[in-house]
Specification:
10 helices; 3-stranded antiparallel beta sheet; 2 domains; paralog of FGE (formylglycine-generating enzyme); alpha+beta; Four Helix Bundle (Hemerythrin (Met), subunit A)
Length: about 450
């Protein structure tokens, strides 16, 4: 298929310098607002190698701006602390050495207080650099700065979600079931039946669309290209806990014929019999949430499922997971007024919520609540090129042994989401707010 033009540079936002500075301050403040319910001891916890302490997230996000922007643009640059270059490097081999990820919880120094001082100093220096570059005459430099700051802010919003999922995992080990938050904005529940919505498919454009998706996309969302999608049906809402309970009651975790070979090995090796954070027995299930230990609501979207569990449930249902191309086609078909409306982190539920209103023949809860697994491998699009420079390590090198998720979750910032956004995790990952939406073929709809 012919490809639309591809470019390896970060999309250049058109925001005015004052707007860029305002957004920088707002996003940075939101990260610090997320740790207000936490103690310094909470912020030190690392509960598994895949998770990071909240304190590390705070420092790494500051490291990003110091390393990729202040080093490049600040006259007479001097690091806040030279040792931070190694301590808070995540995976950028081009920058230099890294502290081992599984041992981040062992970094007791700098203290949380010192990390917050680091953030405050870098914030001030960043605002000064934004103002200085804006006052100059070098438009190429202004564009480069805007690109990198915008990337840094979207990077920070990714870590805002990770901060919440990581602290949830850490707090879950406490037998007193401590709550991160106690605000539960849940109205009356009106159970909604699942309906099947037909999509005719065809040859469709897929990937980041600057005209509809905004001014920014990660490199893995590009280039926009043509994809043939056969006719299919998509469930009107995500799979619920109640539907998952039926799977459990039918011994879904004990039936090897429902599972991929690797998935069954994972079930056996890890003695998996319930979704992550669940406990109890049929009729009395509870699960740990950021609101503490609560009863499992059957009408709420199921979450913290691995790809293996999502795939097994779909097979048990006589359906399948959608491809990411099907998911995006359906998401773009949602009415403009409903686009990107959903249960995002701004609602402060920090948990999926039931569908509250009838969908009237349209897909509901496409955004927010839970990331939805697709059956698509996380591969590059045809003609993909990573960004230039050190930030080229951001996405491309992870395009192996991962699956794509779509739509955002209850921990995702709303302004971070768009129809073309591709999240990705390995198939056994469960600590993210990951769920599923079923798809099925139409008769004669697939070759």
């Amino acid at each position: 298929m012919p490809l639309e033009s591809s470019h390896s540079r970060i999309p250049s936002p058109q925001a005015r310098p004052s707007a860029l500075a305002t957004r920088f301050s707002a996003v940075r403040q939101q990260t610090e607002a997320l740790i207000k319910p936490l103690s310094p001891e909470d912020c030190q916890l690392q509960s598994m190698p895949d998770a990071s302490p909240a304190k590390w997230h705070l420092a790494h996000l500051t490291w990003f701006f110091e390393t990729f922007i202040l080093e490049r643009f600040e006259p007479g640059f001097k690091p806040f602390d030279a040792s931070f270059r190694v301590l808070f490097n995540s995976y950028y081999n081009g920058v230099g050495d890294k502290y081992p990820r599984p041992k981040r919880g062992l970094i007791s120094r700098p203290s949380l207080e010192e990390v917050l001082a680091y953030r405050a100093q870098v914030n001030q220096r960043m605002l000064e650099v934004i103002a200085q570059v804006a006052a100059g005459a070098d438009t190429a430099q202004q564009s480069e700065l805007a690109e990198l700051v915008t990337l840094g802010l979207h990077h920070e919003q990714q870590h805002q979600e990770l901060l919440l999922t990581d602290i949830k995992h850490a707090l879950s080990f406490n037998p007193s079931h401590p709550a991160y938050a106690t605000h539960w904005p849940l109205a009356g529940i009106h159970p909604q039946p699942v309906n099947w919505i037909r999509h005719d498919g065809g040859l469709v454009a897929h990937g980041f669309d600057a005209g509809r998706d905004g001014e920014f996309a990660f490199d893995n969302e590009t280039p926009r290209h043509k994809v043939y999608v056969a006719a299919f049906e998509l469930a009107s809402r995500p799979t619920t806990n109640g539907e998952l309970m039926a799977f459990i009651a039918d011994k879904g975790y004990q039936r090897p014929e429902l599972w991929l070979s690797m998935g069954w090995d994972w079930v056996m090796e890890n003695h998996i019999s319930l979704p992550f954070y669940w406990q109890g027995r049929e009729g009395a299930y509870q699960h740990f949430t950021l609101q503490g230990l609560i009863d499992v609501d059957p009408n709420t979207p199921a979450c913290h499922l691995s790809y293996f569990e999502a795939d097994a449930f779909a097979r048990w249902s006589g359906a399948r997971l959608p491809t990411e191309f099907e998911w995006e086609l359906a998401a773009r078909g949602v009415a403009a007024s409903a686009a990107l409306q959903g249960n995002f982190v701004e609602k402060a539920a920090y948990h999926p919520l039931p569908q509250q209103e009838e969908s009237h023949g349209a897909s509901a809860q496409m955004y927010g609540d839970v990331w939805e697994w697709t059956q698509s491998n996380y591969n590059p699009y045809p003609g993909y090129k990573p960004w230039e420079g050190l930030v080229g390590e951001y996405n491309g090198k992870f395009m192996c042994n991962q699956f794509v998720l779509r739509g955002g979750s209850c921990a995702t910032p709303q302004s971070h989401m768009r129809a073309s956004y591709r999240n990705f995790f390995p198939p056994d990952a469960r600590w993210q707010f990951s769920g599923l939406r079923l798809a099925r073929d139409l008769p004669g709809g697939r070759p």
